[in-house]
Write a structure and sequence with these properties.
mainly alpha, 52% helix, 126 residues, elongated
Length: 126
């Protein structure tokens, strides 16, 4: 008794694309009948699951700019501590003057500068 008969599922019919694949293989491979392998449905399902996992692993990779090294982050913070009034653009220029190859962009530098909040100014009521 076949698997399809047990679960009362209709027998799968080959699609035109499936038929075209086998026509193509039979025309271009001389010994195509010897390479035919019968596999269990569980094996095919396992292949599909593996391919699906691989697909989403590749698709969900992080994109964007690579992270900068801790040396650069420490240097940015050190420059900022020396002169907290420097803007990220000026720190970028300073990194260029230090002959650092491919310094981070000012937007990236701004992420690593600690923000200091000024206390609110109180007006004295007279």
């Amino acid at each position: 008794m076949q698997h399809y008969e047990k679960q009362k599922l209709p027998k799968p019919k080959p699609t035109p694309a499936f038929r075209q694949l086998w026509v193509f293989l039979s025309k271009h491979l001389e010994d195509w009948r010897t390479v035919l392998v019968l596999v269990k449905p569980a094996t095919v399902i396992k292949w599909h699951r593996t391919a699906f996992k691989l697909h989403w692993k590749i698709k969900s990779r992080k994109t964007g700019r690579p992270k900068i090294s801790n040396e650069y982050i420490d240097l940015i913070r050190e420059i900022h501590q020396e002169n907290p009034t420097l803007s990220p653009e000026k720190i970028h220029e300073k990194l260029c003057l230090l002959s650092i190859e491919r310094p981070p962009a000012p937007n990236t530098i701004a992420k690593y500068i600690p923000t200091s909040r000024k206390p609110p100014s109180f007006k004295q009521v007279q």
